Amino acid sequence: MTMLMLSLHATLGLLLNLLRLLKAAADECDVVDAKHQWNWDPYSNHHQCNIQRITQTELKRRFGALGVPNLYPYPLVIVPDGGSNNKQARNEHFANLTMKEHLPLNFPPAFNVTLTGSDSLSSHRRTIPLKQYLYEITNNNGGETYPDQLGNQTWYLFGETHSGEWANFLQQYNLPPCHSCTQMHYHQSLIALSFGIGNVGSGVQWHTHGPGFSETIHGRKHWVLYPPGNRPSYNLNYASRHWMEYTYPSLEDWTAHDFEREHQNHEQFLHQWRRRSLNSSSDRKQAATSYSMDDSEGPSMKKPWECTINAGEMLYFPDQWHHATINNSPYTVFVSSFTSEHE
Known about the structure:
The chain is α+β, with helices and mostly antiparallel strands and about 350 residues long. Helix content is about 30%, strand content about 20%. It is built from 9 helices and 12 strands. The strands form 3 sheets. A 6-stranded mixed sheet has the order 1-2-10-7-12-6. A 3-stranded antiparallel sheet has the order 4-3-5. It has a 3-stranded antiparallel sheet with strand order 9-8-11, with no helix packed on it. Strand 3 and strand 4 form a beta hairpin. The radius of gyration is 23 Å and the shape is globular. The termini are far apart.
């Protein structure tokens, strides 16, 4: 009798273990399926890019050694020379410092970071150890931020990196190529750097501010932008992925005319810049703020300016353009440079 009971107990144990394995496999399948059921898939490598892309060499050929002129009126993606074989040449050292396993070594052992909510107003704050944040973005919700998560419950490291420790760390970063991005500007506090880390699907809802750059150090980051006259409709309580999931798919694709118009805008600005026709900051602001996607004010019925910024690439965002961001990689690291541009 005792032997029979032991045998039954062992058999029951095997069955329970088998059920656990089957449940784990089913859960894993659910996660995989979830990654492919969205209207807008952050994992995709085939998102639209309708913003002009330019190499650093071509940028300097057009505008001189300093790079992007002050108050450039349109978005611009700057890519490294040599393409994928030279992704990190400009900030290779900084990229090494910010690898996930290396980043905590740059700070005291118990170093805390301040996180912000991902809603449009970044209205909430949370302070936790850096190591805990790195663990959470990898493990919470399978390392993904979903479209229906409220922005004030979605914690994001960005914007609160202005302490002395962060300032010392960010001195290792090479500034973007622009007329207002010199070391003189940096030491006179005319350019502000902000460091950020997010997981798949995380990002900040639509908002506006002054001009600047955002460079992806690790991973991929998708940007969407509208001119100042085309403020999009969105729910400010959610993060940006909510808009990409529920509004973006219903918008009209760009036409061949839209792409040609985008190309002509950059060529026209270059021609005027070389002739010094745009000789004041007010002229350049007018060039940007008077432009709209549909030649009308209000939300556009067309999809935004957009592009995925890969590691080693950067995006220039013009003054007061509406924009939102969505991270596409499990460990997305980026640096934003906010400039004080004027003539």
